[in-house]
Design goal:
Radius of gyration: 18 Å
Distance between the termini: 35 Å
Number of strands: 0
Order of helices and strands: HHHHHHHHHH
Mean pLDDT: 82
Strand content: under 5%
Number of helices: 10
Largest sheet: none
Low-confidence stretches: 1-24
């Protein structure tokens, strides 16, 4: 996994490839990065508080600053993705969530779930299906993933393909009226 830094601003393990190759903060043009780098790095708890208080634009700016110093920090990436989505930057939110390692113990499952839901909401059922399958592959039998993929497949007329997911839900005793 990644080494993590909570609030001390110390670097975690190597920079994410997307950030390193673009040499910029998520959601900001290169010209805006220089001024941000001179400011003190906000603590992750401050980023978290701003987001929880509903200040997604502020939280996004703070998360971007935090990610300059800690470019692959899963929680900072996750919060940045949520902020971008709240700011109606849907594609960028999805791409940011994709930077969260899928097998991260704390944020991998939640990031994949957000990606699946958001791509489905954007009318991209193939991407959503692939992401639901990744959830099941990386995180085992997650009832919600089985339920959502079964509903997705049913809505596409792929009833036969949905059967294994419905059977799994039944064996887990997690079937609702929706399925």
């Amino acid at each position: 996994g990644c080494s993590r830094s909570d609030d001390d601003g110390s670097a975690s393990s190597g920079p994410s490839e997307a950030l390193a190759t673009e040499d910029r903060e998520i959601g900001k043009p290169k010209s805006a990065v220089a001024s941000t780098q001179r400011k003190p790095t906000p603590s992750l708890s401050a980023v978290r508080r701003a987001f929880e208080d509903g200040r997604s634009a502020d939280a996004l700016k703070m998360a971007q600053s935090y990610l300059v110093v800690n470019p692959s920090h899963p929680e900072a990436l996750f919060i940045a993705g949520q902020c971008l989505y709240a700011e109606n930057e849907f594609e960028q939110a999805i791409e940011t969530m994709r930077l969260v390692p899928p097998d991260d113990e704390e944020f991998g499952l939640s990031a994949l779930g957000a990606i699946a839901d958001w791509t489905l909401g954007l009318g991209k059922p193939e991407e959503a299906e692939a992401t639901f399958r990744m959830i099941l592959e990386k995180h085992g039998d997650v009832p919600l993933a089985h339920s959502r993929i079964a509903m997705l497949l049913n809505s596409q007329g792929k009833r036969f393909e949905s059967v294994p997911h419905l059977v799994k839900l039944a064996s887990m005793q997690d079937v609702t009226g929706r399925e």
